[in-house]
UniProtKB/TrEMBL annotation:
NCBIfam families named among the record's database cross-references: MIP (TIGR00861)
Name listed for the protein in its UniProt record: Uncharacterized protein
GO cellular component, one term: membrane
UniProt topology in membrane: Multi-pass membrane protein
PROSITE patterns per record: MIP (PS00221)
SUPFAM superfamilies in the cross-refs: Aquaporin-like
Major localisation: membrane
Higher taxonomy: Eukaryota, Viridiplantae, Streptophyta, Embryophyta, Tracheophyta
Matching Pfam families: MIP
């Protein structure tokens, strides 16, 4: 019998976990706290480092004359997943380790962060991404300009619908993993299976890149796509750029709804509360 089944069989039902209260929609008091600005700085620096290492890896791979040389697509996927693992681990206790506007958007929809914090994070992430790619261009200027700048594009042979679908599904996998890895109910129920949250999140990024690099180069992170687009500044890149915001945001919305209303049964709880209120 599992822990959950044994708990359900008890005559009294007490939760062995504590859900944090929903974040207020507008918490302007945060703007007066140093911890808020420290979190913005953490998101800025983390996204800068993320883009610097990953885009430099992409350019380094493309600069190899030998098709079998360099890190290959597998190495690129490891660079993205590994950096997310490292940076989420380093910043989770300061800012939550979002490093991605789509993750921030999903957590905002689930009332995990307030609107001012969500907007601040997205701005910090986008600026950090621009600076990170800027460093890559400064250090590898000739190769950067001639090898596509690490920008996201729809690959030859694929259409807009396919690219959009790939970004939606890829971001769904990532944000769903974020919710699952940080769920207090899961941590209490499965305490016999310790989970280091950054590890599954990093692996989710790695696996999605394996599937999506051939289609779009893998966005699933609007800041990553935006930073590369700003620095490379190519017309075709900007033509496709909307996909790398709409797709991740739709995927994040779907993941938040699935986790909160299906897996966590928030819809059933809300319906039960409504019935109780109307019956009294």
């Amino acid at each position: 019998m599992t822990k959950e089944e044994s708990l359900e069989g008890q005559t009294h039902h007490t939760k062995d976990y504590v859900d944090p209260p929903p974040a207020p929609l507008f918490d302007l008091g945060e703007l007066k706290l140093w911890s808020f600005y420290r979190a913005l700085i953490a998101e800025f620096i983390a996204t800068l480092l993320f883009l610097y290492v990953t885009v430099a890896t992409v350019i380094g791979h493309k600069s190899q004359s030998d098709p079998c040389g360099g890190v290959g697509l597998l190495g690129i996927a490891w660079a993205f997943g590994g950096m997310i693992f490292i940076l989420v681990y380093c910043t989770a206790g300061i800012s939550g380790g979002h490093i991605n506007p789509a993750v921030t958007f999903g957590l905002f929809l689930a009332r995990k962060v307030s609107l001012p914090r969500a907007v601040g994070y997205m701005v910090a992430q986008s600026l950090g991404a621009i600076c990170g790619v800027g460093f890559v261009k400064a250090f590898m200027k000739h190769k950067y300009n001639s090898l596509g700048g690490g920008a996201n594009l729809i690959a030859s042979g694929y259409n807009i619908g396919t690219a959009l679908g790939a970004e939606i599904i890829g971001t769904f996998v990532l944000v769903y993993t974020v919710f699952s890895a940080t769920d207090p109910k899961r941590s209490a129920r499965d305490s016999h299976v310790p989970v280091l949250a950054p590890l599954p999140i990093g692996f989710a990024v790695f696996m999605v890149h394996l599937a999506t690099i051939p289609i779009t180069g893998t966005g699933i992170n609007p800041a990553r796509s935006f930073g590369a687009a700003v620095i490379y500044n190519d017309e075709q890149v900007w033509d496709d750029h909307w996909i790398f915001w709409v797709g991740p945001f739709v995927g994040a919305l779907a993941a938040a709804a699935y986790h909160q209303y299906i897996l966590r049964a928030a819809a059933i709880k809300a319906l039960g509360s409504f019935r109780s209120a109307t019956s009294n």
